[in-house]
Amino acid sequence: MDGVLNVIDGREVPARSGATLPNWEPATGGALGTLPDSDASDVALAVEAAARAFPAWRATPAAVRSRLLRKVADELRAALPELARAESVDSGKPIAVATEVDIPRAILNFEFFADATTQFSSECHPMEGHALNVTLRHPLGVVGTISPWNLPLYLLTWKVAPALAAGNTVVAKPSEVTPVTAHLLGRMAVEAGLPPGVLNIVQGLGPKVGDALSRHPEVKAISFTGSTRTGAEIARTAAPLFKKLSLEMGGKNPVIIFADADLDAAVTTTVRSSFANQGQICLCGPRIFVERSVYGRVRDALVERTAALKLGDPLLPGTEQGALVSRAHLDKVLSYLVLAREEGGRFLTGGRRAEVGGRCRDGWFVEPTLVDGLDPGCRTNQEEIFGPVAALMPFDSEEEVLGAANGVRYGLAASVWTRDLQRAHRFSAALESGIVWVNTWMLRDLRTPFGGMKDSGVGREGGQEALRFFTEPQNVCIHLAGG
Ligand code: NAD
What we know:
The protein is an alpha/beta fold. The chain has 15 helices and 22 strands. The protein folds into 2 domains: 6-249 and 456-476, Aldehyde Dehydrogenase, Chain A, domain 1 (3-Layer(aba) Sandwich), CATH 3.40.605.10; 254-438, Aldehyde Dehydrogenase, Chain A, domain 2.
């Protein structure tokens, strides 16, 4: 798509100023087109449209909202190959990942919350026969969503679907790095029959569009996914305005492999948890702790499997490793490879920018990299790299590895590999992590609370948690007898 546009009040429009930003194709390093360089005046128009649409959308019965969300899902499904290709070209991710993960999950987000809103209930607290407390849950009004580039349509719809299902109208700000599928969604939502103004998409830079959304007085809530630094900025802006805030932020997740685990399964899944989407998933586990008695065996198997990953043109069906999302991100990841070496790390495989020929010769590729010899406390193991770089570390005791696993500012997700049931429970409960997987990774049930502890997040998404976030409880106490 050459020219990405905003979708405001059911219409596709450029920024009011006419200004545009360049969009790039990560696999080639070449220009892909443009997107609107929107500003506060575009956000204001979108919020006005959303505010106009709110009373009718709020009054629309949940069953009707549900049917409309299902129609959006149907539009997305009908366009799955087009959307998957667009996501792959825009972000550099392998077409197989976009086809099997990103777009199906975006469709499921709409279907799941279409169902969830018809099943959403609230509480009633009777007071021994003389009063009833009925808790109503009202939609908030106009809400803002701000989402990142790593799973562009998947994470945008993870916010937009519950917000709409709960009866809010939305102004969504996608990442300026990956704007294309958000535009296509805005168009398809209109085609599906979503009334004008119910879902608005405003494209552009974070400090302009995202900031204007965070400080707009009509916007009642901000649901954000992105880096911890940006989350803190949004909180600084929005908290004094008393907006509801959901912040899903960075991670530096541990994978802990005990000697009693099914080591073949642990190795297979750990290659995925290290390098899926080139390590650019908030749930990836770049810190791999392996019990010393099996360290050599696990290390060698991981190295062999990682070196065999097929890196190349993201549009080829067999490609397992695509490009990093931007030139700036490539530079950041390469700088961490230099740091890892300075900190005493030894590259077991990878460690360099990757050369891919043909149309991808100038693309932003990095070899999937495993490094060992690093201390858990060094910067490479403390800071979020968000790329295809994972560190292997041996451990001797459960107590030692628990301290190391928890010894970072983040607390989003963890994978624990053991066949010892008691240890699985004991260890999982002691991890400072919002999500723990035992003997698996990224197995998602959309009903479960999703989010992080510590600097990884505030609040939870998913299922009822998301519907609660996007509604305001109001308790009505009805006196039944007497004065
Ligand atoms: P980012 O923080 O740079 O940007 C995220 C979004 O915020 C973008 O849309 C951006 O334009 C916007 N933004 C930037 N500055 C802003 C400001 N001042 N005010 C308002 N909005 C602003 O993050 P990114 O680089 O796009 O994404 C990668 C990060 O996202 C990583 O840290 C990763 O861990 C995190 N992430 C977290 C989760 C999770 O569920 N916890 C999921 C995916 C990604």
